[in-house]
Amino acid sequence: MPKPTTPSRTARERLLEAAASLFYQHGITATGIDTITQTAGVAKQSLYNNFSSKEDLVCAYIEARHAEWLALYKARYKSAATPKDRVLAVFDAYADHAAAAYVYGFRGCGLLNAAAELSKLHPAREAVRQHKQAVEAIIREHVEDHRRTAPDHARPLARQLAFLLEGAIVRAGLEGSNASVMEARDMASSLLDTA
Question: I need a labelling partner for 124 at 20 to 30 A (CA). Which of 1, 5, 10, 194 fits?
């Protein structure tokens, strides 16, 4: 009996996958269109048929990284029984991301790495800011549920936890492992227990 065939990826999917890998490994500025199309195995015109410019491709990359993290978080959220567990699920999702297989090892948050290369007015930089705000809002919502309190009372602790997470992910990038994120998770757990 013949094996079922799996649908091949579209040129857009291959371009985005190649760009994501190359942007993360080498940086956005250091990665040219020719390298992306060659890695994706598509003609240069395919890039422009799918993205209006490299800037458009960078924006799609940022959106894909955000969606990737959200999927990791949602998977962790499913098994989180309490509001405290839901806060810690955010840390777990970042730890999962850091523990993923990367060609040259984990180099930190791909979104922050990208933002560091982009001008203040680049639309992808704004998308990175929105991602970080969304993560903090998720934490704040769960802290509110954990403390059973109003947003004004939960906001300072949520902000502290978000900063703790960001610092841990930066350190994890420098160290090339998720150990700092797991350590920060333990710190967050202690902070929530005393809240």
Answer: 10
Reported as a single tens digit per residue, the pLDDT across 41-71 is 999 999 999 999 999 999 999 999 999 999 9
Say which DSSP state 52 is in: S
Distance CA(172)–CA(89), nearest Å, equals 17
> Is 123 in contact with 55 (CB distance < 8 Å)?
yes
Neighbours of 67 (CB within 10 A): 11
**Residues sharing a CB contact under 8 Å with residue 75, sequence separation 6 or more, in sequence order:** 93, 96
Whole-model pTM: value is 0.87
Low-confidence ranges of the chain (pLDDT < 70): 1-7, 150-151
Burial class of 188 by CB neighbour count within 10 A (0 to 12, 13 to 18, 19+):
buried
| Structure tokens belonging to residue 22 | 């190359």
Half-sphere exposure of 103 (CA within 13 A, CB side): 8
